[in-house]
Amino acid sequence: SGITTILASRINKVEVYAIAGQAIVLPLWFMSGAFFPASSLPGFLRPFAIYNPMTYATQAVRDVMILGYFPSGAIVLDFSVLIVFLLFGVITSIFMFKTHID
């Protein structure tokens, strides 16, 4: 959501924002490992999966759905990475909105 909020700070038309948001979110979703293992991605796309916040959200949900509980070590890593991405997105979007308004 931080990525799309940053995008919203720069786009004035709702129609353009909807298309641009999907153009960013859909590739992230496909590379997250939600549909197929991220390890099966070509070598040049694997870094995108590693630095993709959706990869960690997908893994956390998968662990809970398959195992039936939160595995302590893995879930801490997943949520830590998600919190870092969240803080980066929120802080950046606040800065972008402030500079856009001023």
From TrEMBL:
Pfam families: ABC2_membrane. Its main location: membrane. Coiled coil: none annotated. Residues 1-100 form the ABC transmembrane type-2 domain. It is a multi-pass membrane protein. InterPro entries: ABC-2_transporter, ABC2_TM, ABC2_TM_bact-type, ABC_2_transport. Keywords: Membrane, Transmembrane, Transmembrane helix. The keyword Nucleotide-binding does not apply. This is ABC-2 type transporter. It comes from mine drainage metagenome. The lineage of its organism: unclassified sequences, metagenomes, ecological metagenomes.
